[in-house]
Amino acid sequence: FLMERKTHVKINRKEVMLAKLRKSCSCTPQKMKNFLMDFFPVLRWLPKYRCKEYIWGDVMSGLVIGIILVPQAIAYSLLAGLKPIYSLYTSFFANIIYFLMGTSRHVSVGIFSLISLMVGQVVDRELLLAGFDLNDDAPPASGDDSLQNDNLSNTTAFNLTIVGINAECGKECYAIGIATALTFMAGVYQVLMGIFRLGFVSMYLSESVLDGFATGASLTILTAQVKYLIGIKIPRSQGHGMLVITWINIFRNISQANLCDVITSAICIVVLVTAKELGDRYKHKLKFPLPTELVVIVVATLVSHYGKLNEVYASSVSGAIPTGFIPPKVPEFNLMLRVALDALPLAIVSFVFTVSLSEMFAKKYAYTIRANQEMFAVGFCNIIPSFFHSFATSAALAKTLVKTSTGCQTQISGVISAMVVLLVLLFLAPLFYSLQKCVLACIIIVSLRGALRKFQDVPSRYRMNKVDTLVWVVTMSASALVSTEIGLLVGIVFSMLCIIVRTQRPRTALLGQIQDTSFYEDDLEYENLSTVPKVKIFRFEAPLYYANRNYFLKSLYRLTNLDPNLEAARRKKYEKKEKQHLKKGNHRTANGLGIGETTLQLVPKQIDFQALVVDCSSISFLDTTGVNTLKEILKDYKNLNISVLLACCNPSVIDSLKRGGYFGKDFGCMQEMLFYSIHNAVLFAKDQK
């Protein structure tokens, strides 16, 4: 039987687009109000804030995150190749802007190790191209002729006013100029993606790609911090293969290790790891996590200051961190052009991590977010702070988990965290002058535990899905051994290739009937299936399109043990020989048979079926090549007196077949060629003569 299809009214897309355009261009007070409420979600939820119910959890989580943010901000400045003050600016502005524009109640937006690394790689490259020394301990340039002394003709002097002192600097100002230009461009990309609703781009970053990318980048971060751990002076490697080159330089200069830094690093790592492990083990008993990083930084700073570790043992320290805010400055347009391409992967990674975390916690706590608004939020978390000497931001999983575990209810906690950072910016920053860089490196390395533990999951990941494991390994290797940007691109391309290959060579099977039922399954996978006499049932578990056409035909011919083209050619050749013998007047055929026996010989013994049923339940779509392939097998098998029946086709496949002329001009034979179940097709084939 044939089910009657519904008649769909054709939609005039032009009229629909014009109506939407008219609606979007109209301006009414209510529409303006809705626009503002949507663009600043804080206007919706803040008036409904339940102060007595939420305030304690928000204040506690805000204070804890603020305490964690300060040492992390100072530490991650090493990754970004910038001064600690800029990391503090980034943490402050990101929390305030996301409070106004974000739709997630729980994510913590601010500095993130992976984003800091990507910024730092671009900053280092541009500093190197400009002729600056990448050595962190090089004396800072000062004076009016600092840039000229470096013999630079392709850079610009940046004028900054810090606490009322007018200073013209070279390397530091050029570095933050690059970082702000990169951040501004990343934010512009994110806002444009939001305007054009390009959030679907994140779909191409699978979990395996993101995990592999994060793990590979973590290896790069770890490698970049080793020189601080042992206190050696080696150049910051740039370009492809940075990880390998850095390790070669480390082993070449291992004899120059600073014993003071080595001992300090060993003590700090032991303390931090022990505290983290104890915190994980007893987290259900702790109301909030232990501020281990802050305690380590305070103690290490006091020891370094009163022990004079910099003067006596030449231990590298953070140096002066100014207080207050630097006057805002528009990012340099010329620098934007230099980093425009680098900003694209930065924008995508920042957005994907933020949206994925937002969706994860929204699902956990039963509320909804708007992915497009999240793109606007993280975009403006980059655009606006770039005017205030900040660099790129993203949501961070570790801090978000801490927020939720300490009772966070809304983004009020982000404002509290920003106030803690502001306190450090205004009053406490100079106190970190004597803090050793090796302590900051320890904090960074210990924070990578989660990403590095992904190596432990490889066996279970492999057992679950071998292809996803291969994607993870390839992405991780490319991110670590080549570069983070190339690694991300390689991961995306390789994961797509895996999908293409899996559709090019999908599973194929001949089906047998489950005894005493109307159901059919793979004959090689299940026991006690009965073969249907005179009928072959073929299943193809993928869309049928140009890339897998040949595989479809080869699999069909192999499983049915019959190539209709070869069989037709053999028959023609046989008939030709018979005609030649008859012309000569020989009534015996080439095989010694009589003419009457020749007809029987034309039917080969290996053909043991009279109907082929194609199970189309797994064929999601057909392209032109796919339709032509089905028409081809229909014709070829018909020449051998074998009927081809299609079963379980979805509506889009049926429409493609109709448009391709598979059922003829008037669809008269459709009832004898198309069936809604395999069993119906089998019953029809059995009834055929």
UniProtKB/TrEMBL annotation:
The keyword Transport applies. The chain crosses the membrane at residues 54-78, 107-123, 174-196, 208-230, 250-274, 335-355, 376-398, 410-428, 472-501. Residues 525-685 form the STAS domain. InterPro entries: S04_transporter_CS, SLC26A/SulP_dom, SLC26A/SulP_fam, STAS_dom, STAS_dom_sf. GO terms for cellular component: apical plasma membrane. Keywords: Cell membrane, Glycoprotein, Membrane, Phosphoprotein, Transmembrane, Transmembrane helix, Transport. Its main location: membrane. One of its GO terms (molecular function) is secondary active sulfate transmembrane transporter activity. It is a multi-pass membrane protein. It catalyses: sulfate(out) + 2 chloride(in) = sulfate(in) + 2 chloride(out); oxalate(out) + 2 chloride(in) = oxalate(in) + 2 chloride(out); oxalate(in) + sulfate(out) = oxalate(out) + sulfate(in); iodide(in) + chloride(out) = iodide(out) + chloride(in). It is found in: Apical cell membrane. Belongs to the SLC26A/SulP transporter (TC 2.A.53) family. This is Sulfate transporter. It comes from Promerops cafer. The lineage of its organism: Eukaryota, Metazoa, Chordata, Craniata, Vertebrata. The gene is Slc26a1.
